[in-house]
Amino acid sequence: MDIRQLQALVGIDDFGNFSTTAQALGTVQSNISTRIQRLEEELGVVLVNRDSGRVTSIGRQVVDRARRILFELESAVSDAHAFNQSVQGVVAIGMIGTVGRWLVPKLFEAQRLRYPFVSLQIVEGTNSTLEPALISSKIDLAVVSIPLASPELSSLDLFAEDLRLVLHRDHPLASRREGVRFREFADLDLLLPLTATPLRREIDAAAAAEGTTLHASLELDGVRTLASLAFDLRIPAILPATALSTHLKDQFVALPIVGTPLRRVGLASRRFGFPSEPTRVLSELLQEIVITEGSSVEGVHTATT
Question: What is the pTM of this model?
Answer without folding.
Answer: 0.70
